[in-house]
Each structure stands twice: as C-alpha cells, then as structure tokens.
Amino acid sequence: MSDRPVRITEICYHHIKDDPPNLAILPWGATEAHGQHLPYGTDVLQAEAFAVHSAELAQKEGAKVVVYPPIPFGNNAQQLDQISTIHLSTTTAFAILKDVVHSLTAQGIDRLIILNAHGGNEFKPLIRDLQEEFGILIVLVNFYQIEPGLLTEIFDEPGDHAGEMETSLLLHLFPDRVYPELAGDGARNPFQIRALNQPGAWSPRPWQQSHPDFGAGNPRKATAEKGKKYFEKICRRIKDVIVDLSKAQKGELPYI
Ligand SMILES: [Zn+2]
151 CA distance to ligand 1 centroid (A)? Predict the structure, then answer.
C-alpha cells in the first residue's frame, strides 16, 4: 500500500479494492496570464505538485489517500482582458465541487482536501454549504498561507502573483517553462479611491490596470534553490494535514 501510486490517473482498481482510500485531494488552480514570464498553467502545476508530493509523503506514514486531477480553471473575472484566460464562475465551481462530494460520499469517502493554488478562488461558503448537506469533512488548504513566516524567511519579496515565490517554485519544478529575462517588476498601481487602500475595505483589483505587467511582486530575486526549500517544507506541513485527517476517528473535532 505504501508504494502504490497516489494519483487516481495511475491507480487501477486492484490497487484499492481491498484497501480503499478514506481521503481524497482535489487540487484546484486557474488558467490565467502569470506575469510575462510564467505559464498560464502556473497555479494548476503548483496545486498538483503540492498535492502529489505531500500525498506520497503521507502515504508512507499510513494515510489512505488519492489525488484527483486538478481543476484547471478558477475565478478570473477581473482578468478577462488577458488573452486566453478562462473564468470559472462561483456557481459553476459550486456545481463541480458538489458533484465531486456527492460521488465521494456515495463510496464512503468522507474526507476531502481542496488544495488551492489561486488566490482568487474562494471556497469557504461552498464548503460550509456542502459539509452540512453531505456529512463530509472538507478541509481547505491554501498552500501559500501555510507557515507565513517561511515566506519572509526564504524570499526577499514573496509577491502574490508571478512574484518571487511563484517564480522560484516554477524554477524548481518546471524550469523549462520559465522565461526570467521577460519578467517585469510586478509593481502595483494603488487604487485612486484612496480610502479603499486600507485593510478591511476590499474590492477586487481590475488586474491589468492595477498590475501593468500582470504580476504582483518582484520576481527578479527568484531562484530554483529558494523554490526547492519552500516546496519541500510546505509539502511536509501539508503531509501532516493529510496524515492526521486520514487517521482521524469519528467524533474527533471537527470530524463529528
Ligand atoms: Zn499563481
């Protein structure tokens, strides 16, 4: 069991029929321009890489886990002026998630991790509704929010979109898909309605006007070494979530 594949796309029925998973991971990304230098699939690639590597580590510690193919589209309503970006509306995302949850619970899999890599995706209201309806425990993991101190320890300026952190991750995971020489500085134009720049007052950024080179955060100090260090540490943290969730006993909060 500890050496069977974790990706459902590689698993055959004989792998799981006598030892079924009790936990599924659904990586969720986005298809959008990532600065001038990272691929449109950046969030999809990151979500799947974190999910698969973390699940492999967790399986070695006894977790019964499968990783589904990533959902490739996310909420990109403010980026529709970027060529070839796809926007998935919240109602569509809810419908997809509901069908996944319905299918899993029909087979007795009552734990799900959404491994999200796109900051524009919001899952909390969807999870609240579906958890109540289906009696499943759903855990949202935004990889970029795990161990925030690590971001500032490793990166000079992590950034939140095609910045130093994401560029470093891609340089580590998929170096042949990065064009560092084309990277801009990821600068942001603040809102001209000045009171909207304070914490607690929020409105989405019109992306292209807010970020002229489509990136948020300066990627120029990105390196593959920083990406490797960050990836491996975050995977170990996600591994802990997977192991604890898979081994949880019914009645243990919040698995009630
Ligand atoms: Zn991204």
Answer: 15
CA–CA distance, 149 with 161 (Å, rounded to integer): 18
Q: Which tokens sit at 11?
A: 């698993």
Closest to 107 in 3D by CA, of 13, 28, 5, 27: 13
Q: How far apart are CA 136 and CA 109, in angstroms?
A: 8
Distance 77 CA to ligand 1 centre (A): 15
Q: Which two tokens stand for residue 148?
A: 């925030």
Q: Is the pLDDT of residue 158 over 90?
A: yes
- Please report which confidence band the pLDDT of residue 90 belongs to, taking 50, 70 and 90 as the band edges: very high
Global pTM reads 0.96
Residues around ion ligand 1, judged by CB within 5 A, are 42-43
pLDDT tens per residue across span 212-249? 888 888 999 999 999 999 999 999 999 999 999 999 99
Bridge partners, residue 111, by sequence: 137
CA 115 to ligand 1 center in whole angstroms: 13
Distance from the alpha carbon of residue 75 to the mean position of ligand 1, in angstroms: 12
Q: Which domains does the chain have, with CATH numbers?
A: 13-247 (3.40.50.10310)
pLDDT band at 1 (very low <50, low <70, confident <90, very high): low
Q: Calculate how far, in angstroms, residue 65's C-alpha sits from the geometric centre of ligand 1.
A: 25
